[in-house]
Amino acid sequence: MSPHPLPGAVGLSHLIPYDWEAADGVCGGSPHLHLACTEAYVVTGGRGTVQTLTPAGYRETRLEPGSVAWFTPGTVHRMVQGEGLRVTVLMQNSGLPEAGDAVFTFPPEVLADPERYAAATALPPGTGPDTEQAARRRRDLAVEGYLPLREALWQGDPAPYLAFQRSAARLVRGKVPAWRARWRAGALAAAERTGAHLDALESGDPAYLAAADAYQAEPTQRGGYGMCGHRDTYAPGNSTPPSGGA
């Protein structure tokens, strides 16, 4: 993890939701949840919606330029493409989503088998036709498991949704020690640095300001196949001082 991460050690990516039509006639991404991270969408162009499932039920949130929408751990979300939707994604705890802090809404029999789940989530490297086909299959399998969860919530029955949350938690349990290390090196370290700066200011010794500098980053992958759509991503810690002035 970079000693100079984005503010709060958040993750950043740019996203264009898939325009592939799913079984229910909706074009968009793969429904999933995060278990330890809050995620935010900052809409930069076009229009669309995000569908969410929570213990309170099903909801659709309209997305248009200037909209900001976010959801806490455990919220199943599905990004829906309307017309030219483009989103900048801010993710809590940079690095955790890439380390597995996301579980697709696959059918229960897939969630119950870690090896089968891992095989269903895997994509070939690159951005070629094989990768696109695998991403479509993954999306369709997630929608297959998602639709019964949504239908049950419509009928006032949260049990299948809550069962999915429990299955997701079981799948990732073994990853928690590694996540804890990433959190300590990222978000926790960033918060502790702020505390140290406040201590220094209170004591009248702002010597840490002598280390001030500016940083920049470029995407490490463009047009990749993410859960929700085509993503431009930035690897955690991939920041450098700028090469020139304004």
What does this 3D model show about the protein?
With 246 residues, the protein is of the alpha+beta class. 33% of the residues lie in helices and 26% in strands. It has helices at 108-111, 114-121, 129-154, 159-172, 176-203; strands spanning 11-17, 32-33, 39-54, 57-63, 68-71, 76-91, 103-104, 221-225, 229-233. Strands 1, 3, 4, 5, 6, 8 and 9 form a 7-stranded antiparallel β-sheet that branches. Strands 2-7 form a two-stranded antiparallel sheet. The model is unreliable at 239-246 (pLDDT under 50).
List keywords for this structure.
alpha+beta, 246 residues, seven-stranded antiparallel beta sheet, 26% strand, 5 helices
Per-chain topology:
Elements lengths: L10 E7 L14 E2 L5 E16 L2 E7 L4 E4 L4 E16 L11 E2 L3 H4 L2 H8 L7 H26 L4 H14 L3 H28 L17 E5 L3 E5 L13
Antiparallel strand pairs: 1-6, 1-9, 2-7, 3-4, 3-5, 3-6, 8-9
